[in-house]
Amino acid sequence: MCHFAPTTDTADASDLARLFVDNVVRLHGFPTGVISDRDSKFISEFWAEVMRIAGVDRALSTSYHPETDGQTERTHRILQEYLRNYVNPAQNDWDLHLSMAEFVINNSYQASTKATPFQLNNCRNPRLPSLLGHADSRVPAAARFCSDIQENIERAKRCIASAQDRYKHYADQHRRETDFDVGQKVLLSTKNINLKQPGTKKLLPRWIGPFEILHVIRPPSKPDEPRKPAIAAKLSLPATYRIHNVFHVSLLKPYRQRADNRAPPGPIAILEDGPYWAIDRILAHRDLKRGKHTRREYWVSWEGYGPEHCTWEPEDNITPLALDEYWASLEKTAKRASARNKGEAAQPTKRQRT
Question: Which residue has the higher pLDDT, 236 or 205?
């Protein structure tokens, strides 16, 4: 099932944890695992510790496709299509449409499961006003309210069904019919992987491997239907590759042994999914004297971390871009203060009455 919760772009990791409890745990309890992207809030120390204490396994998705965990991305696109049709011109009422979109998506038939999310979760579909029959009402406002609900549900169903058909058609046009099986060796695209190698990305390997397939994920087939092609595969990756090991087939291609029977190269080093620290902004600086030497440090705010995690960092730990932005902001602030002081000095002082 999907749950949509309005939030802001200023939310931090603690806000994310509260949204998770209010919108997921409250309804379903703690899951055994959570698959997410590499947003700074999901890779923050706070979120990682909350998940560890709650006994929830974290998996950072690298598949980037709407048919693996990218199911989330597909739902996002359908939701965006829905909101695009209903928000006002100022786009400031989008949060009012989330509840109806959530209800309709959870009550929509899914071809992969042969049921709706409501059926799978509650063993039944919810009742709708249209199923209750028409009843005379002595309160016209109440009748209009129920009628509006039913009309909004029907409009949302048509909009979401249209978006699903459109994305399915697009995916079918770009789907490869190459199938994969357990035990087969494949090459993995480096499109979404950070290789730990110097130089421009254009000159780095486009494929790495080979890797053996441990498990394939394919749509269910009826007994009298032929087996459908795999949509994703779980690979046997080196222990040093701390990344999610399930990939969409668009990121794989069959490995073919070289004609000279030479062994393939060893594993290429990639950046690990360990603790990730990205500078949000520099807040201040100070100069520390160490004997005859002076060392400059910067008070740094980190993406995905609250103010309690700000740290003093030496200049060597700061990217040149972050330093340039910091000094530019200080210069701009100084110019504004200077202009303000000049304006105040130019104004005649009022004489006080005696």
Answer: 236
Pairwise CA distance, residues 234 & 210, whole Å: 13
**What token pair was written down for 242?**
């701390």
Specify whether 139 is located in the same domain as 199: no
Note the pLDDT tens digit of each residue in 30-89.
998 887 877 778 888 899 899 999 999 887 654 444 344 556 767 877 888 778 777 877
d(CA 331, CA 341): 15
First to last CA, the chain: 77
Domain shared by 145 and 202, yes or no: no
Which tens digit of pLDDT belongs to each residue from 214-256? 998 887 777 788 888 888 888 998 877 767 788 888 889 898 8
Number of domains in the chain: 3
Long-range CB pairs of 40-44, under 8 A, 24+ apart, other chains included: 40/276, 40/278, 40/303, 40/304, 41/11, 41/12, 41/13, 41/16, 41/304, 42/16, 42/304, 43/273, 43/275, 43/276, 43/304, 44/12, 44/13, 44/304, 44/305
- Say yes or no: 74 and 162 in one domain: yes
Q: Is the four-CA dihedral 278, 282, 283, 286 of positive or negative sign? A: positive
Strands 57-60 and 33-36: parallel
The helix (run of H) or strand (run of E) holding residue 265 is none
Report how far apart, in Å, the C-alpha atoms of 57 and of each of 18, 28, 66, 190, 247 are. 18, 16, 21, 25, 18
Give me the phi and psi of 146, to 5 degrees please. Answer: -65, -40
Instruction: Please tell me the distance from the alpha carbon of residue 250 to that of residue 63, in angstroms, as a whole number.
Output: 9
